[in-house]
Design a protein that fits this description.
5-stranded mixed beta sheet; Beta-lactamase; 470 residues; 33% helix; 6-stranded antiparallel beta sheet; single chain; alpha/beta; D-tyrosyl-trna(Tyr) Deacylase, Chain: A; 3 domains
Amino acid sequence: MKKILYMACLLIATTQADAQSVAQKLEEAIVQMEADPVFKHAIIGLCVVNTNTGEQIFGNQEQTGLAPASTQKLFTSAAAFELLGKDSRFYTRIAIDQPIQQGVLNGDLIITGSGDPTLGSWRWASTKEKAVMDQVLTILRNNKVHTIKGNIWIDDRSYTQDPLPGGWIWTDMGNYYGAGCWGLNWHENQYDLTLAAGDCCGGLTTVKSISPSMPNFQLTNNIRVGKQGSGDNGYIYAAPFSNKAFTEGTIPANEKSFTISGSMPQPGLAFGELLKSRLVQAGIKFSGKVQTSSGAWLFGQVPPKPTAMLDSIASPTLDSINYWFLQKSVNLFGEALLKKMAWQKNGNASTEEGANLLIDFWQSKGIDKGAVNIMDGSGLSPQNRVTTDALVRVLQFAKDRPWFSSFHYSLPLYNGMKMKSGSIGGSRAFAGYHTAKDGTKYTFAIIINNYNGGSGETVKKMYRVLDILK
C-alpha cells in the first residue's frame, strides 16, 4: 500500500513538474516574442489548458479581445452542431403558383431557397451544377410538365434581405471569399476570372473567360502584368445587386491562364438563367423570363406566392458542410449556418440576429458577453473581437459533446497539430488541440494582432511557441 501511495504521489509530482516546465517554456517564448521588433506594437494573446482537467497551464493577454480572423469559425461551428444537429440540412423548394393541367403549367415556376450554401458547389457529387439541374428536371418530369406558360421566379429573399454582414469591407466583398449569403446561393456564389499576362511589366492583362457565365455582367479589367513569380495580387471590386465590376492589381508575367475568383453579385439570377437554358435543352417549352425576388424588391414589385410545392432538393448534412467550412475556411458556409440558426429560433435570418444568438448561446455556456464581439459567422469582419480564453472554452465545450468526433475530424492539420487557422490584415491566429509525446492533452488558442512584417515569418514564430506543447 505504501508503494502504491508513493508511486501515485510521484506521478502527481512528475505531472505537476512537467506542467510547470511547459508553463515556464511558454512564458520564456512569449517574452522572447514580445522582445522581437516585429511584435513591438503587437498584442499577443495565448491560452493553454489541460484538455482533460480544464486547468489553465499558461495565459498571456488571454482576456484581451483580439481580431480572431477565421478562428472565429469555431464559435459558429460548435454552436451549429449543438443547435441544429449534425444531420440538419438545407432545403431548396420547387413550387408553382398555378395548377398543372395536362402537362402545362399555366403559371410560374418558383424556386424558393433557404440559404443552402452548397447548391451548385463542386465539393459533393450531389451538389454539382449538372446534378442540381438534373434534380429540377426530374421533379418537373415526375409531375409530367412539358410546358411552362409563366416565368421562372427565383425566391432569393425568403431567407434574408441583406446578403452581406455590415462589418465587411469593400476590398473583400467583390472577391470569392467575400461572397454574401443569399436566400438562394449558387456555385458558392463564386465565379472564376481567367486572365493572360504578357511579358513584364505594366501592360494590361487580357480576359480569357468568366465562368460560370452571369447574365448582363460587365467587368472592366485593370489588372496589369507584374514581375514573374510575384503571385496573385489581383482584386475584384463589386457590390451585391450590381451587374458591374472592375479589377485592380497585378498577376505574374508570362501567365497564359491565370485565374482569380470573384463573388457573384446576383447568384439567383445566374442560377435561373442556367435553369432556363437547361429546360429548353430538355425539351420543356418555356418562353418566359427569369426574375428574382431581390430584383422585384429593388423595383417595388411583388413576386408571386407559391400555392403548391412539387418537391425539394436537400443539401448534404451539417457535419459534411462543417468539414469544408473548417478545412477550407469557406466564409459563405459560416454565414449560412449563422443565418440558419437565427431562422430556426425566430424566423429572422439576418446576420445581426444570428450574431446576437451566438453571443447569447456562448454566454449560456459560461463565456462572458464582454469576451466576444461577433459581427459575422466567419470571422472576415475586422470588427470581430474575441479572447483566446473564450476560444479555448469553445473547444473545451465541444470535446464533451456527442458530435465531437465530427467536429474534431473537420479541423485542419497545421504544424502537425489539429487546429483552425485565421488570417486577415495584421492578424494571425490558431486554435485547436494537441497531444504531447508524454500523453498530456492540450487545448490552446493563440492570436497575434498588429504585427509588423511578413505573415509567413509570423506563422513560423507562432509555430515555435506551439511546438512547446509537443
